[in-house]
């Protein structure tokens, strides 16, 4: 597979994702989730710095696993690894990885068929990248990550007390 083709597909997917997730600008809904402030991962001079790195790591792990579940082609990830440093999920206990994987798998399994496509050759394609990105930014994943963090902190505190 040509690396230019992979780059083109990834760039196109990111652009489509930007325009496909629902816009919340100007929303009057008080429960609208605006997300965290932008920051560069693994950069010490972020202003503002990320609020909770553990939750962000959990969500990143879920995002990458969602992509992996969707594409089921590790050669894509090998190509990405040539230029990209994947975020370490060192802080996320391995005991949580099966939950992350099963949640990501459900997202991909429930992915509906494309309703709008250019021609018959695109009919079988799905919005994998966009769906995973929307999942990453969702309140649902935010809530799951926060609950996992609270359990993680309780377990750590129990260990230190014992």
Could you please describe the fold and organization of this structure?
The protein is mostly helical. It contains 6 helices and no strands. The longest helix is centred in the C-terminal third of the chain and has 23 residues, at 139-161.
Q: How are the elements arranged and paired?
A:
Layout: H1 3-20, H2 53-71, H3 74-81, H4 97-109, H5 128-136, H6 139-161
Helix pairs in contact: 1-5, 2-4, 2-5, 2-6
In short:
This protein has 162 residues and is an all-alpha fold.
Please report the number of helical segments. 6
Rg:
18 Å
What is the 3D form?
globular
Q: What is the arithmetic mean of pLDDT? A: 77
Provide the descriptors you would attach to this structure in a database record.
162 residues, mainly alpha, 6 helices, 56% helix, 0% strand
């Amino acid at each position: 597979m040509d690396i230019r083709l992979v780059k083109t597909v990834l760039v196109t997917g990111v652009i489509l994702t930007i325009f496909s997730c629902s816009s919340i600008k100007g929303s009057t809904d008080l429960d609208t989730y605006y997300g965290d402030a932008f920051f560069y991962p693994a950069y010490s001079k972020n202003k503002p710095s990320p609020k909770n790195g553990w939750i962000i790591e959990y969500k990143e792990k879920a995002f990458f696993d969602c992509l992996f579940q969707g594409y089921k082609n590790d050669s894509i990830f090998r190509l990405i690894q040539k230029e990209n440093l994947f975020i370490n999920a060192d802080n996320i206990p391995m005991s949580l990885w099966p939950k992350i994987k099963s949640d990501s798998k459900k997202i991909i399994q429930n992915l509906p068929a494309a309703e709008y496509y250019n021609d018959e050759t695109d009919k079988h394609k799905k919005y994998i990248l966009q769906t995973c990105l929307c999942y990453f930014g969702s309140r649902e994943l935010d809530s799951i990550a926060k609950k996992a963090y609270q359990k993680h902190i309780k377990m750590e505190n129990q260990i230190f007390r014992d």
